[in-house]
Amino acid sequence: MPPPPRTGGAQVGLPASHVETLVVAELKICVNAFKTTIPRDIIHHYDVIAPADKALPARLNMELIRALQERIAPDVFTPPGVYDGRKNFFTARKLSLGPDNTREFDTKLPAPKPGAKGPKVYKIRLNLVATINPEVLQRFIEGKQSRDNAVLTAITALSVVIRMQPSMKYPFNVRSFFTDQERKDIGSGLELWCGYFQSVRPGINQMLINIDISTATMYKAGSLISLCLDFFGRGGSPDILAPSRGLPERERMRLQRFISGIRVMTPTPGGKKIARVIKKLSSTGAGALSFQMKEGGTMTVAQYFKNVVGNVLKHPDVICVEIGTGALIPLELCEVPPCQIMRKQVPPEKTKSVLDFTTKRPQARLDLIKAGLRVLSYGQSEYVREFGMNVPNNAPMSISARVLAPPALKYCPGSRQLTITPANGAWNMREKRLFKPVEIPRWALVVYERQQRFNSQNAADMIKGHCESAREVGINMGPTSIILWQNGQGDIEVQLRAAGKAVVDKYKGGPNLIVVVLPEGGNEIYTAVKHFGDVTMGVATQCLKSSKCFRAKAQYFANVCLKINVKLGGINAVPDPKSVQTLADPNNPTIVMGADVIHPAPGSDGPSTPNNAKYVAECAVQTSRQEIIENLETMAFNALNMYINYRKNVEKKSPQSAVPKRIIFYRDGVSEGQFKQVLEQELTALKKACTSLGINTQITFIVVGKRHHIRFFPANEREGDQSGNCPAGTVVDREIGHPTELDFYLQSHGGLLGTSRPAHYSILHDENKFSPDALQSLSFALCHVYARSTRSVSIPAPVYYADIVCSRAKNHYDPKGNLDFSDSATNVDSNQGQASLEAFRKNFKPLNPTQKFLMYFS
């Protein structure tokens, strides 16, 4: 049975006619959520201000607040309050701060050792900004109050309460803490630590604590020299870190990017060690670096540490670290203290190690979550007790779920099965012909792997396997005699032009496709190839790793054909109209759009064709770290215009029939705190785009969330799939859903190795008055039309495509240019940031017009 509608979501229209969703089964599942009580007493909210200091690290802030509560003013802070490490401090009773409810405290940390110079004094001001009546949460979960600032602040306060105790004991980030009980050395100076995520969330008629396992990448503690040697994967003498003994400048800069921001303990005159933060590395060794003394004259860094500090260097040729003040400290005198989280991107070569560590089968993950509840020990937390919270049951919630029927998929006549029904989110291409296969009469193969490693026979075998697989799925792909081996250090554009010219000379026409074989680590070649194909020449390109091509099986080339077919305008499979009744109404032409924002560029994927298997894309540049899509109106206008022209020119619809009556807009990359802002600005942009085209289109606006920690576990393992996960199509729209707004969780894909993550769908606006069942069924069906795969995916295909378009934004820039795409490129001041934004906008190259109506991004 469909769930009863929830009240309170004023923006969601309920349907006049109800569309039943086909349900295969109902099952009991466990969710990693635990019921908690709501405090009864008023909570006091204070703003924490450190007027004389810039933003301090959360770790240092926590130490200062701890010192303030335990040593500086324990009489004021009894019982102690809870702190988020930034600006928010909450107490269970009002503090005595004077008539203005504000007070400044001189706070300092204990001296490192007896007799040492006194530590720095920090002036911390607390100011009462609000009182929180937890009753608002009770009204909210009962559906009697909308989500406003009072509700959000109350939820924040409870989350800070449960995180306070572990944050005082363990290294932490915003919502997780980490212990060394389970850790793994992955080399390159890094370790992986297992930890726990925890967050308070509202449910329907209940408050919940969401607990999940989490992973942090940590710098290895010990000598900094050892860490640097480990980074390079080298043992032996530290002299390899000396420029005078062969340390290449490129490697020095790579090491600098890795260790900048690490906190190290360094010696000072008198013998004590103090913490410093590494800014960068010197370009020469300590014995060759000299500086001007205050008393006059010069001295090398090595001489200073020998004469003034009392440390004779064993390796004076090794480089130094430079700290924020500009002081230089020899590498060998620095110690890396434990418990430091690396907040940079994990090196690509370590991705597999991270996946191996983090991948947990469902039962193993659930067992770790239960163990985490014991580590968290809410019952023993003085903070949880003082605020009147309680977690009465140590068992995860058991709730009811439904399993939706998968859509039927149609293939081309000539297939052994014209229509197939996926089993647990999977099917195969055996004896199936693509719904609309393409022809590839002219193509070239360009090999960037060394010919000694990938020789002529390897190329011939690859071409044979590729063409045979293409014919099996219906693609008419002629054999090619154009095979070129090229040097990846050369000019990629010149080399690919040469391949194109060879095709023209041989076949009297340009190539339909250029297949490129890449060596390991060929990321820069890949970017240059895609820039050439997508932007410069407008020719389809398909990159393959050489390691995948050796003795590749037919299944591999069949999967490659799925990508190539849609790049050239073909269609792989389409859902049976009976499976997508929401979109099958010819009187209501419907566009499905997907949109996402990542850094540095936003992407929008849409619109779809009526069978929802073919999409076009728009991509643009905007301000970094901004969730709102700045130029959505223009992007939507272009997408709608392409849809209308396609319907008129290709499908031969009349001008009136070509106009869409409905838009279903799936939006990714939005945090819950920004729902209101995104809806207000982006819905307006969509409406303006429609107005500009003179069309009146009804819009449904859905946010698809992936960055959450809700997980499903089958209560009975026999009801799970082969991986131990809940079956594909598992949907939950009760108990853990939003109290006042229409939402649901849908696990649309079958499990493989780890624990599957359901997507969270929040329907923010619905002028089409779709039923919850209809939206669930549609969303599940769209997860089956992702062209690259014969498995359903975790989010609807248009959202997935938008994410891919975003991730490919770098391909729109000249690979010979000097724009900085690194993580550190966004960590600049506002003036630099504006200049960088303008540079990115100026250098952004639009898609080649020949690719405009093609799925070049597949």
Features:
RNaseH-like_sf; alpha+beta; globular; 25% strand; 858 residues; ArgoL2; 5-stranded antiparallel β-sheet; Argonaute-like protein; Rossmann fold; 21 helices; ArgoL1; RNA binding; paz domain
Strand and helix layout:
Layout: E1 23-31, E2 33-36, E3 43-49, H1 58-72, E4 82-83, E5 88-91, E6 102-107, E7 122-132, H2 135-141, H3 149-169, E8 176-187, E9 190-203, E10 206-219, E11 222-223, H4 224-231, H5 249-259, E12 263-267, E13 273-285, E14 290-292, E15 298-300, H6 301-309, E16 319-323, E17 328-330, E18 335-336, H7 351-358, H8 362-376, H9 382-386, E19 397-404, E20 409-410, E21 419-420, E22 439-440, E23 443-447, H10 456-472, E24 476-477, E25 483-485, H11 492-507, E26 513-518, H12 523-537, E27 540-545, H13 546-549, H14 554-567, E28 574-575, H15 581-584, E29 590-597, E30 602-608, E31 615-619, H16 632-649, H17 655-658, E32 662-668, H18 675-692, E33 698-705, E34 712-714, E35 730-732, E36 743-747, E37 759-766, H19 772-782, H20 797-807, H21 830-843
Parallel strand pairs: 22-24, 23-25, 23-26, 26-27, 29-32, 32-33
Antiparallel strand pairs: 1-19, 1-34, 2-10, 3-5, 3-7, 4-5, 6-7, 8-9, 9-10, 11-18, 12-13, 13-16, 14-15, 16-17, 19-35, 20-21, 20-28, 29-30, 30-31, 33-37, 35-36, 36-37
Helix pairs in contact: 10-14, 16-18
For the secondary structure, the number of strands is 37
Radius of gyration: 30 Å
CATH fold description of the largest domain? Nucleotidyltransferase, domain 5
Number of helices: 21
What would the principal axes of the Cα set say about the shape?
globular
Domain PAZ: 236-338
GO molecular function, one term: RNA binding
InterPro entries: ArgoL1 (IPR014811), ArgoL2 (IPR032472), Argonaute_Mid_dom (IPR032473), Argonaute_N (IPR032474), PAZ_dom (IPR003100), PAZ_dom_sf (IPR036085), Piwi (IPR003165), Piwi_ago-like (IPR045246)
Domain Piwi: 513-814
